[in-house]
């Protein structure tokens, strides 16, 4: 049930999408890069492999697990 609600919200909330990408069970590699532009703007990029956040039926439920108590 909490995962069903999260999947429904995934299309509406980018923050949730970043969280689920980080906890995606089948993603085994994670990289982050940061750069500062000449105007002082900071850019941060995260890459996951294999890519997660697949919303096809069953993928979300299999890869975003319920919290352990």
TrEMBL record:
SUPFAM superfamilies: PR-1-like
Gene Ontology cellular component terms for the protein in this record: extracellular region
PROSITE patterns the UniProt entry points to: CRISP_1 (PS01009)
Pfam families registered for this protein in UniProt: CAP
SCP domain location: 15-47
Family annotation (InterPro entries): Allrgn_V5/Tpx1_CS (IPR018244), CAP_dom (IPR014044), CAP_sf (IPR035940), CRISP-related (IPR001283)
Record protein name field: SCP domain-containing protein
